[in-house]
Design goal:
single chain; about 230 residues; mainly alpha; Herpes Virus-1; three-stranded antiparallel beta sheet; two-stranded antiparallel ribbon; about 60% helix; rod-shaped; binds zinc ion
Length: about 230
């Protein structure tokens, strides 16, 4: 406000141009002074330590109406100012200081208006990203947990000439995986569950990441298995 008074005083004679910048600045300065007055009236207890006036006094009602009116006027003045500085004219060359001050006022005010939307958008985006990362982290932790438990399920290397694997038996006629339905190849890694059902290691690991039970008999696998692996 002080800036406006100084600029208008010093540049009054140079301020005649095609855009009504002088009118805008004067109206803005007067309205801002009124807003400041009403604000001081309401917050003078903070400044002077005096109690805030009773709400039903004439002065209080008047100040309240004045405050609402000046706040509304402020927004209308800003729109007026925006229209002035955005329209083509010679003020930028004829009255550069006035134009710069007017542009600064309008830009700052629009920035203040827009800032909450930017903040909200930023918070919304951050929140979405946070949820996505939290979800990914949870999936990763779950998978880690499953992989740790899978280490407790015995693993064997299949050999066509061998039928005994730990305390389980795999007959040559039944040497195939019930998940992918493919026969076991020589050297393929298998897992044999406590229920004695056997599968390709890769097939059953993927299955157990989704469902912690045997695909054939539905017996729970991961919590009950505690044998060491045997290659
Ligand atoms: Zn398989
Ligand atoms: Zn089973």
């Amino acid at each position: 406000m002080l800036e406006i008074i100084i600029v208008l005083s010093l540049k009054w004679s140079e301020s005649v141009c095609s855009q009504p910048l002088r009118t805008f600045l004067i109206v803005f300065a007067v309205n801002s002074t009124l807003i400041l007055t009403t604000n001081i009236f309401y917050f003078k207890s903070l400044i002077t330590g005096m109690p805030i006036p009773e709400e039903d006094t004439f002065l209080s009602k008047f100040m309240s109406s004045l405050h609402r009116t000046t706040e509304l006027m402020d927004q209308l003045i800003m729109i007026f100012g925006f229209l002035i500085v955005s329209q083509p004219g010679d003020c930028k060359k004829v009255a550069p200081v006035l134009f710069a001050v007017s542009l600064q006022i309008v830009t700052l005010r629009f920035a203040i208006w827009i800032l909450p939307f930017f903040l909200l958008t930023f918070v919304f985006c951050c929140f979405g990203t946070f949820l996505m990362l939290a979800s990914k982290y949870k999936k990763w932790k779950d998978k880690q947990k499953v992989m740790e438990m899978l280490d407790q399920v015995p693993r064997y290397k299949y050999q066509p000439s061998q039928t005994a694997y730990g305390d389980a038996v795999i007959e040559t006629s039944a040497a195939d995986c019930a998940i992918c339905l493919a026969p076991y190849e020589d050297g393929a890694y298998l897992r044999i569950l406590e229920c004695k059902h056997h599968y390709h290691q890769e097939c059953i690991d993927q299955w157990l990441c989704l469902t912690p039970s045997c695909p054939l008999c539905k017996r729970e696998v991961l919590r009950r298995s505690n044998s060491d692996s045997n290659v």
